[in-house]
Amino acid sequence: MKSLLRCTALLAALGLSSCGGDVGVGFGYVWYDDYPWPNHPDWPKWPDHPQTATGLYPIAGDICGVCSGSKDGTGPAARFNAPEGLAADKAGNLYVAEPASATIRKVTPQGVVTTLAGSTGAVGYADGAGGAARFNAPSRLDTDAAGNVYLTDTGNSAVRKITAAGVVTSLAGNGTCGSADGRERSAQFCNPKGIALDQWGNLWIADTGNHTVRRIDASGNVSTVAGSPGVCGSANGRGDVARFCKPEDIDVDQWGNVYVVDTGNSTIRMIDKEGKVSTLAGQAGLCGSVDGSTSVSRLCAPSGIAVEGNDLYIADTDNATIRRINLDNVTSTIAGTPGHQDIVLGTLPGSLDRPIGVARAPDGSFAITTHNIVVKLLPAK
């Protein structure tokens, strides 16, 4: 029944005849001999492996003993400091939220890492261009077709926007932790994390500190869609009958279903077009790593999500894995070794270290933040 809700229940309303996936352009990260990974000669490098080969491949950053910090550069010369959310634009650029340094980073298709907005270590709350802007623990992002980046400025309890030219403005929230609905900066959030833009121009927010799901419509009006402010729970149902516990990420499919990474409950939830909340994977209060149907699957503190057609890809953080939930709500492990926090790239399953962000590329590959690096995943279908 849930799989029908995730796809076919909306076909008649939207005039669709099938539930097929997307087709798009590539995610072309290529490493040439000029950019070796000297500390990890065993790691695969592009173009040594064709883009049809499944596996985990380095994009930027490194894991040597002195590889922490936040530094611009190309490929393994770049440094990240505990990166979290990331998003891809249609040109193949990646945008990475780096809470620890209070910055937003950009990675070009050539692997060049720059600081798009904010200044390393300069925590604050200020609009402006590039390095003049200030953030406080920005954590998740999304992009639109025009190249704008939308992000949750978690420590400031605000939602911000960065234009393609790097100009930062505040869309909603006012720096104060609260739960008030309203218009633009009169509304209040409390340490929000997840953010997703749907095709109708709505921004969906996982309001982590309030245990709720919020929506900002195209006119800037903020409303609470599901959950009860300040109440941690796991109940399914409609609107304020439903309960979440510290949700950390969110995404929306092409039919308007909203998916919530309910981190505190170690579950994945869905809000359908009628506002009904259901559980797709995991069981509240039970941390584990079990593949299978909704009733048996287990996750452990997941914190990232990306939608590809009918499938959901989950960064299952405390299990150190990437999980996939298919149309029938069956969960499988596609990358990483459960319980083994390490970085081993190459042939799947490999190993990951507390993966947090996961972003879909139009060609079906994914970028992942794990430890202090960004890697590319080409999953088996």
Describe the structure.
- By secondary structure, this protein is mainly β.
- The chain is built from two helices and 28 strands.
- The chain has helices at 2-6, 11-14; strands spanning 55-60, 73-74, 86-88, 94-98, 103-107, 112-117, 128-129, 138-143, 149-153, 158-162, 167-172, 182-183, 194-197, 203-207, 212-216, 221-226, 237-238, 249-252, 258-262, 267-271, 276-281, 304-308, 311-316, 321-325, 331-335, 358-360, 366-370, 373-378.
- It has a five-stranded antiparallel β-sheet, with no helix packed on it. Strands 7-11-10-9-8 form a five-stranded antiparallel β-sheet, with no helix packed on it.
- Strand 5 and strand 6 form a beta hairpin.
- The longest helix has 5 residues, at 2-6.
- The radius of gyration is 19 Å and the shape is globular.
- Residues 1-34 have low confidence and may be disordered.
Strand content: 25-35%
**What is the β-strand count?**
28
Instruction: State the distance separating the first and last CA atoms.
Output: 24 Å
Kindly report the oligomeric state of this protein: single chain
Number of helices: 2
Order of helices and strands: HHEEEEEEEEEEEEEEEEEEEEEEEEEEEE
- Percent helix, as a range, is under 10%
* Overall 3D shape: globular
What's the average pLDDT?
A: 89
Q: Strand arrangement, largest sheet?
A: 2-6-5-4-3
Structural class: mainly beta
Return Rg in Å.
19 Å
Unreliable runs, pLDDT <50, ≥5 residues?
1-34
Summarize the biggest pleated sheet.
5 strands, antiparallel
